[in-house]
Each structure stands twice: as C-alpha cells, then as structure tokens.
Amino acid sequence: MRGVDAGGIDRLALAVLVQYRMATTEQLHLLLAPGVRIEQTRRRLARLREEGLADRITLPRAGRLRIWFPTAYGAQIAGEWPELRGRRPSRTVSDRTAVRLRAGHALTVTEVALAFVQDARRRSDVCQPLDWIPEVHHALGGGEAVIPDALLYYRKGSNGRGVMLRAFVEVDRATMGPERLGAKLTAYARLHQYVPTPAPGTRRRQIGMEPLQEEWRRHYPLFPRLLFVLDGTGPTGVDNRIRALHTAASQLTPDALPGVPVLAAALTDILRGGPCAPIWRPVQNPDQRVGWSH
Questions:
Q1: Residues 115, 100: Cα–Cα separation, whole Å
Q2: Quick one: pLDDT at residue 2?
C-alpha cells in the first residue's frame, strides 16, 4: 500500500503550499520529508505540477531559486479538506506576478515556520507543518483588522500532557520604519480589548444573558503571546527596532496586554540556535534574554 502513504504526503505537500502561500523546494523538503532524498520531493512536486495542482516560478537571482505555489485549482481542492476548512486563501495565491513580488517576505515567513518545526522535532515537542497558519484575520470593527504574519500552535512535550502554546508571529524585514513596527503592538493591544458590538436590534435574550466579551476569547483560551522576528538589518538595526517596540509598550495602559509575553529576536539568532534557545528579548525589558516559551 505504498501508494496510499505517498498520496498522504502529496496531500500534505499541497496543503502546506495552500496554507503557506509559497515555499522553495528545499523548504518543502525539510518540512515534509527530511528523512528521504530531496530528489523524491522534487518528483512529488513535479507530479503536483503535472496534475495542475501546483506551479512554480524561477527567480533569476540566488542560483535560479525555484518557488512553488498552488494553482487556483489546487487551492480549490485543498480548501475542501477538513484540515484547511475555514482558512482564507489569498486572492493572489496563484498569480505568478504576485508570487514574485511577495517572495522575499513570504519565504522568510516560511523559513521561520521551518525553524519552529525542526526545533520541535529535535526536542520531541509537537509542531507539525500545518500548525503554522499565515495571515489569520482578526476583526477590530469598522472594517479594521489585525492580521499577523502567522499564528503558531506549539505543544511542549509529546505524551499528550504537554502545554499548548500559541503565538502571533510578526516577521519584520526592515522594510518599514521602527515607529510603524511599534504601531503593530498598539494594534494587538486594541485586539486584546476589542468587544464586538451586537447587531442593531439584537435583543439581550437573543444573545444570551452572559456579558459580552472580547472577540479573541471565542478562538483562544489565552491571548497568544507576541513574537517579533527581525531580519534585514544588522545588530544596530535590531536594537533600534526593539527600542521602538519598547517605547510602544511603555505607552500602553497597564490593562492593554496584561500577562501577555511580547518578545523579539533576530532571525539570524533563531536560525543559529533554534527558536527555543534563550535568544528572545522581552520588549518591556530588552536587556533580558529568555526562551520564547518561558
């Protein structure tokens, strides 16, 4: 029954492409099947391409890097699967020009996901490829929303009794000023406090006698911690951006993000030592170094 198992990996490969938007051949190989030769992953991707489920572009730089993405047909097929139900596929997920223009940021986000998945494997924790969900929409009312680069699910321990951790991940490649990065923290504070207004004419008996509560509580038992991954700049630039986050945090009211860890780390440190190493700097006290799951 080897074909059944191979089909399962094909299904996972397409699901990852749809959920992640895009990935390189090497990234997909390390996410899906690091224990086999990369030629097998290349053949699997070629088969998805032959079936019209995935496509690729080749960037002229970086050794003609191949970037894989789902076709509209592939996104439609995978969107009907239970593991992807409720996900919002990008409107440009299968547009070759959009893939090329978004490749820098999207591939960096995928690289961060790979770091968490690989670290979990080394530590016997649980973080599967589909436990990294990019661009989850969180409404703030009035047409505004907070959309993190990714939502991370990570279980410490693999015996079923481990602690489930959740994190909103923001990947900053120094394409915006430090102040705009700090403004993201303010947006998350708004999300923490946002209580949706009942529709006009809704009676109390229709919405129940329980008091209205923050929107995020419908989705998470605890507000996810905030992880800022900093790339595209040297140590001085990283310090400047963490200072901007520190300033933004100091301007929040005490009840804005109570008890929510807000941490920042350089991508180079994450790739060097793994995301669970004590490389994260709390924005409230940036002189400290802690693990993200502390």
A1: 23
A2: 41
